[in-house]
Specification:
The complex is a heterodimer of chains A (about 220) and B (about 220).
Chain A (H helix, E strand, L loop, with lengths): L1 H15 L5 H19 L3 H22 L3 H8 L2 H6 L5 H30 L7 H25 L7 H8 L4 H16 L4 H30 L1
Chain B lengths: L2 E10 L2 E11 L4 E5 L6 H9 L6 E6 L2 E2 L4 H5 L2 E4 L11 H11 L4 H10 L15 H10 L8 E5 L7 H16 L3 E5 L10 E4 L5 H4 L11
The chains are: A mainly alpha (about 220), B alpha/beta (about 220).
Chain lengths: ~220, ~220
């Protein structure tokens, strides 16, 4: 337990110190979403229609930004070897790192999303559902990304490869996440889509640590 | 015999590096691995740490067989490779306290380990502001955080000054006096006195062509 707390504390500390890139994801998210009205035009109805998709796609891309360093930094300075020999199972290490990634990247997106939804003229009724869909969906993005990060850990400049591997895997989360907001906007019941997204995220969170740990073991050689 | 290595063979990218290596190490003994660059000293240490797969042969440490029970094996060894496993954004104390928590050590052990390597005055300095030798000392201080039977050290004295090397040698002697063992790859004289040398040799020509896909393909 002590070891798990230490890993989580270290990950958060590293993310928040200079060069950690904790604020980068949310800053990128802000800029992408703010650019959309300039490209699409100021028509409120059009913006409201594209808002769920824009917010979710911007969130996917923002989550990607810091994923490539998830295991690479530890692999480069030798810490991954020592962690692999420590009493802490690699599966737990993956889960803790993905959790720290969500806390420093996903959670700020969830908090910033309502403010950005204003710029996209999202109807008021959809706000709680926007927050709920991102809060439930983004942990799945971090855990799924951990698989990609562990597969590409030995590759120099693996960041782009990581995006190509992981972004297609985000499609199910994207579909259900945007449906939640779109249905709330139309006045329909968003709950079925929310439950499907919840199930999807829970499934990813349960399976990803094992898949990523297996990939890390192969890469340690 | 506390550590027994029997006919150990290892490969790196399909190329044989260690060929049927066998040796014994008794309680309280240190063994210095010698040999030219690329002969397989690091490969041997990583294989014995359980980080590299073994092509054939086996190793036994206190009755535990390598790669048969990885958790029990990891409890018996401490590995320090070329890299120091230090985060440059964290202070020296934060770095060592993290490893201490991961390996179940105490904060007192952290203070003692820092003192043993003469790092007390630098504890609150970020690692990026430390010299290579200071970082190496911190990397070696990690060995003191948890009781481990066998130390596997890959060129531990690189970038250490004479005084730090002497401190380190004293530490290895104390570890061995307490019944521990050490396997150290090094090109310099560590001043360990009684430590024996094991000189590795490149695999023989016959071993080079063992891969059936490569036989005959390169002249």
């Amino acid at each position: 337990m002590n070891a798990a707390a230490a890993v989580l504390r270290r990950e958060l500390r590293l993310a928040l110190r200079s060069g950690g890139g904790a604020g980068l994801g949310v800053a990128f998210f802000l800029i992408v979403v703010v650019l959309v009205p300039f490209g699409v035009g100021p028509d409120g109805d059009v913006l409201a229609q594209v808002a769920p998709g824009v917010l979710w796609i911007a969130a996917l891309l923002a989550c990607q930004l810091s994923l490539d360093r998830l295991f690479q930094a530890d692999a480069e300075d030798g810490a991954l070897d020592i962690l692999a020999l420590s009493p802490l199972p690699l599966e737990a290490l993956v889960a803790l790192k993905a959790l720290a990634h969500w806390l420093t990247t996903g959670l700020p997106l969830v908090l910033a999303a309502p403010a950005l939804a204003v710029t996209l003229s999202l109807p008021e009724a959809a706000y709680p559902w926007l927050v709920a869909s991102l809060a439930i969906g983004t942990p799945g993005l971090s855990f799924l990304g951990a698989i990609g990060a562990s597969v590409t850990v030995g590759i120099r400049r693996g960041g782009l490869l990581l995006s190509i591997l992981v972004l297609p895997l985000y499609i199910p989360s994207l579909i259900f996440g945007t449906r939640i907001i779109a249905r709330a906007t139309e006045g329909a019941d968003p709950l079925p889509a929310l439950l499907l997204l919840s199930g999807l995220s829970l499934g990813i969170i349960a399976a990803a640590p094992f898949a990523a740990a297996a990939a890390l073991r192969v890469n340690l050689r | 015999m506390a550590l027994r290595v029997i006919d150990l063979c290892c490969q790196r990218s399909g190329r044989p590096v260690l060929d049927a290596l066998g040796f014994d190490l008794a309680d309280g003994e240190a063994l210095i691995l010698r040999g030219p660059n690329g002969v397989g000293k690091s490969t041997l240490l990583r294989a014995l740490a359980g980080l590299l797969p073994v092509a054939s042969g086996s190793a036994q440490l206190d009755g535990v067989i390598l790669n048969e029970n990885p958790d029990a094996w990891a409890e018996l060894i401490a590995y320090a490779g070329h890299l120091d496993a230090i985060k440059s954004q964290l202070t020296l104390r934060e770095n060592l306290a993290f490893w201490s928590a991961v390996f179940g050590g105490s904060m007192r052990a952290v203070a003692e380990a820092l003192a043993a390597f003469g790092l007390e005055a630098l504890t609150d300095r970020p690692a990026h502001a430390c010299s290579a030798g200071q970082k190496r000392r911190l990397g070696l201080a990690r060995l003191m955080l948890a009781e481990r039977r066998l130390w596997l050290l890959d060129e531990p004295t690189v970038s250490l000054d004479a005084e730090a090397t002497a401190r380190f040698a004293a530490l290895v002697r104390a570890h061995c006096a307490g019944g521990g063992m050490a396997l150290i790859a090094s090109h310099v004289d560590l001043g360990l006195g009684a430590a024996a040398d094991l000189t590795l040799r490149p695999p023989t020509a016959g071993a080079q062509t063992r891969d059936p896909f490569l036989v005959g393909s390169f002249g």
